[in-house]
Structures are given as C-alpha cells and as structure tokens.
Amino acid sequence: MSDSRESSSRSFPWKLIGVGGVILALILSNQFLPVDQWLKALLDWIDGLGFWGPVIFILVYIALTVLMIPGSILTMGSGLLFGLGWGTLWTVVASNIGASLAFLIGRHFARDKVEKRIEGNEKFEAIDEAVSGEGWKIVVLTRLSPVFPFNLLNYAYGLTNVKWRSYAVASLVGMFPGTLLYVYLGAIGRLAGEASERKPGEIAMLIVGIAATFAVTFFITKSARKALSDKTGIGKEGSNE
After folding, report:
1. Torsion 191-192-193-197 (CA) sign
2. Residue range 97-122: mean pLDDT, rounded
3. Residue 75 in contact with residue 183, Cβ under 8 Å?
C-alpha cells in the first residue's frame, strides 16, 4: 500500500505538468494565436523541404490532432502541395496515427480529464451505449456523420469498450470520404497554379471529379446521419435542421 502511494505521489507532479501544458497549448493556439496564418506559413515551409516535406507534414498533422487543433487547412494543403494521390495518402496516414494516439492517451493516461470534459454530454452517452452493442459500426457512422467534435471524439472513444484495432480500422474507413473531399479541394488550388500547363479537358475533368466527390460525400454523410439517428436517437429532434 505504501509503495503504491509513493508511486502515485511521485507521478502526480508530472501528470499535473503534462495536463497543464496541454491546456496551455490549447488556449494559446485556439484563442490567442493566429493559427490559420501559421498553418499557411507552415505549408509554404513544407513545400520547400523536398523529400522531407511529407515526413514533416505527417508529424505536424499528428501533433495538431493530439492537441485537438483542427487540421482542415493542412488537409486541403496536402492536396495543394502533393496533389490528389500523394496528398490523400499522407493525410490518411497522419490523421489515423493522430486519432489512434489520442484514443490511447484518453484510455491510458488522461481518462479522468476526458471523463470530466464529456460529463453530462447526452450525445456521447448515447454513442457510448450504442458502441457497447454495435462496436466499430458506430465508430464508422460517427466518422461519416460527425455529431461530436472530431478531435475530442478521438479521446472520448478511449473511454468506451471498443477495441483499439476496431476503432483504428473503423476510423480509417469513416474518415476517408471527408479526407478525400478536402484534399481534392486543395488539388483544385494546385491545378489553378498550373492552369497554363494544363489542357482544358484536364481542368474540366478535375472539376467534374470534385463535384462528383462532393455529391457522393454528401449522400454518404446524409445516409450515415440517418443510420446513426436510428441506432442512438441522436439528431431526431433536430432532423429538420
């Protein structure tokens, strides 16, 4: 008993410092600092790194996900920097590693803090109950039709009984359509910069592609939202919104 108390007392300061550091980073990043401008400057810097560009991009994306800072600008930026194919690949790798790290941190290192953050949230309570019976299916649906802040959801799933492997695979599947759409938008920006080197037919095909991707993503999201509502009751009252 005395050993466990000693161990707990030794680890407490480090936990306190760690939690305080995360909170401070979140406050500074999301409220007081020009995050969007910094991310745009970061993209310019990554563009000049050559071979190391994708590596730095992935590491930065993972860090943003763990710090719960929205990475939509980086997702579109990947299409701008690397094109549709490579941009999608690097973003999928980075977003899924970041989501898995947040999940593991929520499950093993910051459980109490996450519990306090989502305490009393009826949506998560419904998701938590549904996950007990449906498992990975609910993870896929919430990724396709977000009813909970994406970055916080990564941590919140660590409190459920879903296995990490199921969570990781379901997140990969569920996040892909949205990722592809955002990267495609960035790729359009890349095309605009190379318009003089492209044939009109190529430009037209890419525009048609983004329109089709948007339509499919919208349809999938709408269908997933209905399925999630049927399974959890979330969104039934606001279904007309």
Report:
1. positive
2. 84
3. yes
More confident residue, 211 or 20: 211
Residue type, position 146, single letter: P
Asked if 58 and 93 touch (Cβ cutoff 8 Å), the reply is yes
Among 72, 115, 118, CA closest to 94: 72
Q: Are 6 and 44 in contact (CB under 8 A)?
A: no
Least trusted range by pLDDT, from 20-29, 174-183, 231-240: 20-29
Residue 19: other Cβ atoms inside 10 A: 14
Q: What is the dihedral of CA 88, 160, 130, 122, to 10 degrees?
A: -100
Model pTM above 0.90: no
The full 3-state SS of the chain, as one line of letters, equals CHHHHHHHHHHHHHHHHHHHHHHHHHHHHHHHCCHHHHHHHHHHHHHCCHHHHHHHHHHHHHHHHHCCCCCHHHHHHHHHHHHHHHHHHHHHHHHHHHHHHHHHHHHHCCHHHHHHHHCCCHHHHHHHHHHHHHCHHHHHHHHHCCCCCHHHHHHHHHHCCCCHHHHHHHHHHHHHHHHHHHHHHHHHHHHHHCHHHCCHHHHHHHHHHHHHHHHHHHHHHHHHHHHHHHHHCCCCCCCCC
The rounded distance, in Å, linking the Cα atoms of 46 and 182 is: 18
